[in-house]
Amino acid sequence: MINDHLHNKIEDYLSGNLAVEEVHSFENEIHTNAELKSAVEAYKLANELIIDNQLLNIKNKLQNIHNSSKTKNKSRNYILWLPLLFLFICLSIYFFHNNEKKKTTLTEKNKSEKPVNYSKPNIIDKKSETSSIKTKESYEVSQNNLPVEERNTTPVESDTLPTYKINDISANKTTTNDTINNSTKSNNNNTGIEKHNSTKNQKSEEEKLKEEKCAGLAKITPSVIITKPCFGEANGSLVFRNNSEDNLYSIDGGKTYQTSPEFYNLKSIKHQLYIKSKIYGCVSNTHSGGSNINACDYIIYPSQNKYLEIDFISDYSYPSYLLKIYDARNGNEIYTETITEGQRFTWEGNDNNLKDLPMGNYVYSISNKNEILAQGNITIVR
Amino acid sequence: MKKKYTDTEIIEAIRTGKSNNVLHYLYININPKIKAWIKQNNGSDDEAQDIFQDSVIAFYKFVSDNKFEYGKSVEGFLFTVAKNKWINRAKKMNQQTTYEAKHESNHYVANEYIDFKIKTEQEEKINKVLSQLGERCKELLTYSIFNKLSMEEISQKMGFSNADTAKTKNYKCKQRLIQLMNSHQEVKEFLYND
User: What is the chain B residue with the closest CA to A312?
Assistant: First the structure.
């Protein structure tokens, strides 16, 4: 293994950072020292390998660009033909119904207008069918964002704290004690409960309050209002719906608690919620949800030079990310780019061939090799 | 993606290793012109694509070696390289075609353009070695060897705490690559033959 000092010298020599005299003396050394000579050769080859690999990458990327533009041109032809085909079908349906209309006018003169009414809705129906399919597709794309919110909106009912009868609580307690006693001592079961009940009756008002409060908490499933963060930014927030000054709040499964029910500057919104009583220390039910997928909607105004800008500086520190943009109307992929960590990505509302895209809604997704990290909507306003 | 690049921006993007968009840009803006010229001179679509790719690679290598002079036209360079490559190829094929006698005055010597010919099995061998090296090392060495970024720039790009960390990692990655190449002699052989 070559040591650090020699490494620096070889690197400097190969990158031309040595002064002229140093180069001469180093080259003399190389001629006399066979070991050094082979080390320098190894460095040269290693450099060459990296350079060749990078040139190969460029070549492959160019080939990919070439291939994708080829297929895009083909599909574009196909897209050109589609409306014509549709028009042809519409016309043929229209003529077919017109023929039927003529037939009916021959037989029933009074109802001559009705077949026209029949034929038109038929065409409209077909159109609305296709358009409803399209909107379904776009919903499916946008609904990927929804489950996070849905999960959080379901346990809403817990806004008001219900009051509980103390008797109920003691009954609850005995049953839980029952199960514990059953598992440990089955013989002394009955006497154990009796003793417990008798001590309970003598409990002070404060303890009753505590039990009331804790039982109340135990029935609460925390719920939160969420603002999803944008990718690369810490602008997410979580606010507990059930807030009271008596409580502490945790979003990390009870590891840390804070007095405020509001959590800001979050980079992702995956959470496990707990509410803890400040005085008594007992905790609520837990509720976990959210996801690591960041969602943020963007509106861009290309004519005013307001573009989509995302800084790919994240906690993930993956070497690279894949960004894809789809047309929200039909789900077609219209733009793809690989972005390395640390880069700023700018999108001016164009497709991969630099063609401006029309005003409308688009959907983006950012992923690494295995999972989606962010997705949301982009609106282009022109 | 930016729609328009100045020559300086193109060179800076290649130098700093952010050149995906530049490739698209070159493909859309310069490829059609080269293609038109080659087709005029009895070339096919595929041959034109080949020449364009080789020219871009030569251009990248030039920029990487700091041989590309700032202020020179990128389009002019690519066009000249493409023409020369096509003429050389035609000569090799012994085609008796006549070309415009005068080419644009050319500051670069034709044989300076690298001929980048790596076979598929060689590519596989390179990939094999580099996959054992790991993504991060590969990225770091590409920045330091191909893009010739300073350790400071590399540490910023890759999120290291400082230039010294980048330097140590660079040293370790390089030693590792040399070791890997020693155990894959076949890679060395075809690199020697280049």
Answer: B157
Residue A32 to chain B, least CA–CA distance (Å): 22
| A229 close to A267: Cβ distance less than 8 angstroms | yes
Interface contact A55-B57, CB threshold 8 A? yes
Task: Reply yes or no on whether the pLDDT at A342 is more than 80.
Answer: no
Q: Helices (H), strands (E): how many in chain A?
A: 8, 13
pLDDT band of A118, cuts 50, 70, 90: very low
**Cβ neighbour number for residue B88 with a 10 Å cutoff:** 14
| Structure tokens, A203 | 């409990």
Please name the residue of chain B whose CA is at the shortest distance from the CA of residue A350: B1
Please state whether B17 falls in left (phi above 0), alpha (psi between -120 and 50) or beta. Answer: left
CB contact under 8 A, B28 and A51: no
Nearest to residue A60, comparing CAs of A49, A48, A52?
Answer: A52
Per-residue CA distances from A59 to A188, A228, A381, B134 (Å) = 82, 40, 36, 21
Degrees to nearest 5, angle at CA B21 with B17 and B23: 85
Contacts of B113 (CB under 8 A, 6+ apart): B55, B58, B81, B84, B85
A64, B24 contact by CB (below 8 A): no
Confidence of residue B143 (pLDDT cuts 50, 70, 90): very high
CB atoms inside a 10 Å sphere around CB A212: 16
Chain A residues with beta carbon closer than 8 angstroms to that of B191: 45, 48-49, 52
B1 to A348: CB separation less than 8 angstroms, yes or no = yes
The answer to whether B182 and A368 are in contact (CB under 8 A) is no
Whether B130 sits inside 8 A of A49 (CB atoms) is yes
How far apart are the C-alpha atoms of B121 and A95, rounded to whole Å?
62
Binary contact (B57, A350; C-beta < 8 A) = no
The pTM is what? Answer: 0.48
- Cβ–Cβ below 8 Å for B145 and A347: no
Q: Which residues of A225-258 are buried (b: 16+ CB within 10 A; e: fewer)?
A: ebebbbbbeeebbbebbbeeeebbbbbeeeeebe
Of the candidates B2, B27, B148, which has its C-beta nearest A62's C-beta? Answer: B27
Residue with tokens 């990718």: A231
- Cα angle A288, A291, A296 (rounded to 5 degrees) comes to 135
Predicted complex ipTM: 0.86
When CB atoms are compared, the residue of B3, B49, B126 closest to A49 is B126
Nearest alpha-carbon partner for B88 in B122, B107, B114: B114
Binning pLDDT at 50, 70 and 90, where does residue B170 land?
Answer: very high
Evaluate if residue A37 carries a pLDDT over 80. Answer: yes
